[in-house]
Amino acid sequence: MAEDSGLIHALGARVLRQAAHESAAWREFPDFAGVAVNVSTRQLAQPDELTALVRQVTAAEGIGAGFISLEITESLLMEALGAAQHALDVLMELCVQLSLDDFGAGYSSLSYLRALRLDRVRIDRSLTMNIVDAPRDAAVADAIIHMGHALDLEVVGEGIETRGQATRLQALGCDVGQGFFFARPMSAEAFTALLRDPPDWLPRPVVRARARARAAKLG
């Protein structure tokens, strides 16, 4: 509805401003690496407006653009690949972190990974939820992880709800994990407390040189 009515521009701007504001308060914590914000098709269709907004909110909060991560989905790219390429090129110059979200849920076109300037790829939860008991799912996840690393991309496993899933992805070399196993949605105050005393979810035997500090790093 927000997309159809055009309200997405005001809504997206509000979310981005809030993300930058929270990032300014959390940047003192060494484990904090930034806030991720989803971007809509309409926002990418106006790349100059989007980049101007990123510049504005980061300057207003006195933070680097690297504390903001923008996530785009495969379905969005299918709708506006040309606009997305231009927008991502400009945003990359600002040092904004760029992620391809829900990879594996749609067409999973490898041309997106080849053509677009990205920092990370996020494996869709449909490929991680059965990763312990389904060898084929594990094989696909393993292929995505190796492909992502070959392209110098950080790989994030989404939808992790159990220690078994997290451990399996760690063994496959996945860089970062996201899901209810680590934490459920929480208030800014609760997240501040988590940053002050982060739990040891999993052992961290080796940290890839490419990977940045994360609140829930897999190894």
Provide a descriptive summary of the structure in words:
There is one protein chain. The chain has helices at residues 2-5, 8-26, 41-44, 47-61, 74-79, 81-93, 110-115, 135-150, 163-172, 188-196; strands spanning 35-38, 68-73, 97-103, 120-123, 154-157, 176-177. It has 219 residues and is an alpha/beta fold. It folds into 2 domains: 1-98, TIM Barrel (Alpha-Beta Barrel), CATH 3.20.20; 119-219, EAL domain (TIM Barrel, Alpha-Beta Barrel), CATH 3.20.20. Helix 2 (8-26) runs parallel beside helix 4 (47-61) and helix 4 (47-61) packs parallel to helix 6. The longest helix has 19 residues, at 8-26. It is globular, with a radius of gyration of 17 Å.
Feature tags:
6 strands; 219 residues; TIM Barrel; alpha/beta; 12% strand; 10 helices; six-stranded parallel β-sheet; disordered C terminus; single chain; 2 domains
